[in-house]
Amino acid sequence: MTTRVAIVGGTGKLGGIIREVVEHEAGFEVAAVLTSRSELAELDGADLVIDASVPAVSIDVVRAAVERGINVLVGTSGWSAERIALVRPLVEAAGTGAVFIPNFSLGSVIGSALAAAAAPFFPSIEIVEAHRETKIDSPSGTAVRTAELIAAARAGVGPVESPHVDQRARGQQVASVPIHSLRRPGVVARQEAILSGAGESLTIVHDTVEPALAYGPGIRLALAAAKDATGVIVGLDSFLDIGLRRPGDAAAEHPVDEGGVPGQVARTTGA
């Protein structure tokens, strides 16, 4: 049976990549392509909704899909654990599935998992993320997800040490982790998780070089999972056996206080 997919934001950069993947994926077909301004009644008749819109519209897309009893795959940025908690009761009451993917890049997911695994051993952790100047939200959804995973991993040792956060130049705190966002031309997506301890530091860096190549494998994985998902699922790591402990499950269930794949490069450096 073919799964009919409606893509909201299907004319944007991410939406275009998703549409290309769906069109070439066996068992799926693009039934409707909506912009962020389209009437959500156009979702009628779809078997799966994919949201690649904008943060201000995304929550309406999720609600519209859930109200229609349609599973939804969310690739739009801006969904913190606290925001996801707002729609979780709706999803559970409807008996549908909502899959939230902050980043479709396998390398990015692995980088965030590595940062979370190392987090209990370093008292000071900060995140620096950079995207092209056209990205309208900050911090990025990937940075927020990474900070939430770090906080969950540090549940037994407490929040990170982040002095002088009352100063605006110290970044925005998410789950006690300062995040610094850069928006500039000449970059696609880059994240650094900088973990510091006595006499040493560990930097985990992920660069997206070619989005279509980097996101394709993750989109296909998420498509297959979202079609039959039940309840709320957060993160591509939910479908990957990375071989590390997975504090993200705790972050998804208990919202924290908001305070070798082609096309990408991931590296870890110690200094």
Topology:
Layout: E1 3-8, H1 13-23, E2 28-34, E3 48-51, H2 55-67, E4 71-74, H3 81-94, E5 97-100, H4 106-118, E6 124-131, H5 141-153, E7 172-174, E8 177-183, E9 189-197, E10 200-208, H6 211-227, E11 231-234, H7 248-253, E12 264-270
Parallel strand pairs: 1-2, 1-3, 3-4, 4-5, 5-11, 6-8
Antiparallel strand pairs: 6-9, 7-8, 9-10, 10-12
Structure commentary:
By secondary structure, the chain is of the alpha/beta class. Helix content is 32%, strand content 27%. The protein has seven helices and twelve strands. It has helices at 13-23, 55-67, 81-94, 106-118, 141-153, 211-227, 248-253; strands at residues 3-8, 28-34, 48-51, 71-74, 97-100, 124-131, 172-174, 177-183, 189-197, 200-208, 231-234, 264-270. The strands form two sheets. The protein has a six-stranded parallel sheet, sandwiched between helices. Helix 2 links the parallel strand 3 (48-51) and strand 4 (71-74). The longest helix is centred in the C-terminal third of the chain and has 17 residues, at 211-227.
Keywords summarizing the entry:
disordered C terminus, globular, 7 helices, six-stranded mixed sheet, 271 residues, single chain, six-stranded parallel sheet
Query: In whole angstroms, how far apart are the ends?
Result: 53 Å
Count the beta strands: 12
Please trace the helix and strand order, writing H or E for each element. EHEEHEHEHEHEEEEHEHE
Helix content: 25-40%
- Enumerate how many helices there are, as a single number: 7
State the shape.
globular
Order of neighbouring strands in the sheet with most strands: 2-1-3-4-5-11
Radius of gyration: 18 Å
Major sheet details: 6 strands, parallel
